[in-house]
Specification:
It is a single chain. The chain folds into 2 domains: about 5-120 and about 250-295, D-Maltodextrin-Binding Protein, domain 2; about 120-245 and about 320-330, D-Maltodextrin-Binding Protein, domain 2, CATH 3.40.190. Strands 1, 2, 3, 4, 5, 6, 7, 8, 9 and 10 form a 10-stranded mixed β-sheet that branches. Helix 4 crosses helix 5 and helix 5 packs parallel to helix 11 (about 320-330). The chain has 11 helices and 10 strands. By secondary structure, the protein is of the alpha/beta class. It has helices spanning about 25-40, 55-65, 85-90, 165-175, 180-190, 200-205, 215-225, 260-270, 275-280, 310-315, 320-330, and strands spanning about 5, 20-25, 45-50, 75-80, 115-130, 155-160, 195, 210-215, 230-235, 245-255. The N and C termini lie far apart (about 55 Å).
């Protein structure tokens, strides 16, 4: 039995036994997991999944959920990031629930009201071209190195208006303050090469266009797996530094979901250690949150990583105004 897929523009059709999923995680990664869930129900539940294919797919799905709020079609939203999930939480469009996760689940990986749960994260890392920077002692070690004049024109980051880079600097705004973060971004813009996305950063470093850059683990590990001359650095590990940011997948059930019972079953399946292990073993080498996960992602270093402590809900406050301020900086 296979998951039924709908096009990005067509209507979602379903029967009374279907659970409808809007997924911002790429179809190739999500579909095998949704298929496995469907098989595990022994025919009791069928999954209808909708994937948008455009570059702003997360925003497109979120806007569709908002447009459908008075008569929800989606039962469960699987997002490959977190900020827009928090946006839906703040709009009151998600259903609080108890999550079937182990005790001690990190506080920044579960909503304060139980309306979403984070799992299977990507980390914000530095990727270094080892031919251009052959000595590991010379590798950059902090996100702030993007504003260091010694690297002028030799480092890169993605324009922080969308995706994980936008999330990253919204988080840093809460840690360092709004004015300091905007000033830092202005310095970075003057010092580094600004590219359109994290994938483009990883490709530029892999090709030797620049020496190093800031990207996500899933983009970095692809270049390493291809045998490119790159190293991955988990930044800001010193005691006086904030740690490495990890940005999870999130899953949430929509308020007034038409098929709540089936959505509950699927939500618990998606955040399970088995699902996290499956995503960790995949091409994107995602990072399990569960301590009972059995598979260590190949992207992780041999030494433990100190993770940044984050309040994503606070970081999402004033998102629209913050986005306007960033647009002014990067339109200059």
């Amino acid at each position: 039995m296979m998951v039924v897929l709908s096009s990005s523009s067509g209507c979602v059709q379903r029967s009374e036994s279907d659970v409808v999923v809007y997924s911002a995680l790429d179809e190739g990664f999500a579909t095998p997991i949704l298929d496995a869930f469907q098989r595990s129900t022994q025919g009791e539940v069928s999954v209808v999944a909708k994937f948008d294919v455009e570059s702003t797919k997360t925003v497109g799905l979120v806007n569709r959920i908002i447009a459908e709020k008075d008569s929800p079609v989606c039962d469960l939203f699987w997002n490959n990031e977190i900020m827009h999930t928090v946006r839906l939480q703040k709009l009151g469009l998600l259903e609080p629930r108890s999550w079937d996760v182990e005790g001690g689940w990190p506080a920044d990986m579960i909503a304060s009201d139980g309306s979403w749960c984070g799992f299977a994260a990507r980390a914000r890392v530095l990727i270094v071209n080892t031919q251009l920077v052959p000595d590991a002692n010379d590798y950059p070690s902090s996100v702030s190195d993007l504003e260091d004049p010694k690297w002028k024109g030799q480092c890169a980051f993605a324009r922080p208006l969308f995706g994980t880079t936008a999330t990253h600097f919204a988080v840093l705004r809460e840690i360092n303050g709004r004015s300091e973060t905007l000033d830092q971004l202005r310095r970075m813009k003057q010092n580094a090469v600004v590219l359109s996305g994290n994938k483009q950063v990883a490709l530029a470093i892999s090709a030797g266009t620049v020496a190093w850059g800031l990207t996500d683990t899933d983009d970095a590990i692809i270049e390493k797996d291809l045998g490119r001359p790159v190293a991955i650095v988990f930044p800001d590990q010193l005691p006086d530094q904030p740690g490495t940011l990890r940005i999870p997948n999130t899953v949430a059930i929509l308020k007034n979901a038409p098929h709540r019972a089936a959505a509950d079953r699927l939500a618990d399946y998606v955040v399970s250690p088995t699902t996290e292990d499956r995503l960790a073993m995949g091409d994107s080498s995602q990072l399990p949150i569960s301590q009972t996960s059995k598979f260590t992602p190949r992207v992780l270093p041999s030494t433990p990583v100190r993770w940044m402590h984050v309040d994503f809900e606070t970081a999402a406050e004033g998102w629209e105004q913050w986005a306007e301020e960033l647009l002014k900086v990067f339109a200059e």
